[in-house]
Specification:
301 residues, alpha/beta, Rossmann fold, 7-stranded mixed β-sheet, 10 helices, epoxide hydrolase activity
Length: 301
Amino acid sequence: MHTLRTPEDRFAGLPDFAYPPQFCDLDDDDGGTLRVAWVHDGPEDGEPVLMLHGEPSWSFLYRKMMPILAKAGYRVICPDLVGFGRSDKPARAHDHTYARHVEWMRALAFDVLDLHGVTLVCQDWGGLIGLRVLAENPDRFRGVVVANTGLPTGDIAMPEVWWRFREAIQAAPTIDVGRFVQAGCRRSMSDEVRAGYDAPFPDDRYCVGPRTMPSLIPTTPEDPAAAANRVAWAALCASQIPMLVAFSDSDPITGAMGPIFQRTMAGARGRSHPVIENAGHFLQEDAGEELARHVVEFLRR
């Protein structure tokens, strides 16, 4: 597997994100290895909270939440998905598959970090990957927070706004990741923050992950990932693992999934679920501090 690695100097001077990265090598499922990165905060003996980002962001998205959870005594772990952040970036579209992305995050969480009693916090592709990991390894988890995400099976049509996003990110001559993230927010970002989202992608050769991920989402019942997602969805519906549904009020892509999670997931029933106001798809960027406080309250309950 041919991969690219973003030079470390691209990450110098990131605003409010001075966490030193950790690295490990994982089997790339193609005869080689991939370097995967993560950052962490909080006490080593704290209950682990695994926070997974989505497309086209990276762990920088969680910089407003990490110190709040760490101060509350939790061990916060924020990986970079393969193809994003400081993790290695497969340079060919066909090297990215849904199953591989699930396996890479499972291997990091359990084979490398050996996490137990984990609370998963997931948004966008962080949910598409993380919810699969949870459903297939329920004994490792004690809770889950779903935020602007879903688990598509191809049985229900994706919203038109998602198809427009997929077309835009796949057809653009070059990808301005900071601009895409800003478009998914309700509140303005500074130039420094936008540059932080751009940092992992020095040029378009590094953007195969952001370009490819939308095409991996099951949009038909026959999609290669559809069957596994159906099995995972059924397992999650029946699971008693506590679930907090913390969606924003202004996400046209995943907003309709919030009530579905609340209604169909056994672990979500009988619980008060917050709605994060004046926040778009990237609610961690718009209102990370507020979301973090809801996560802490959920963990303490």
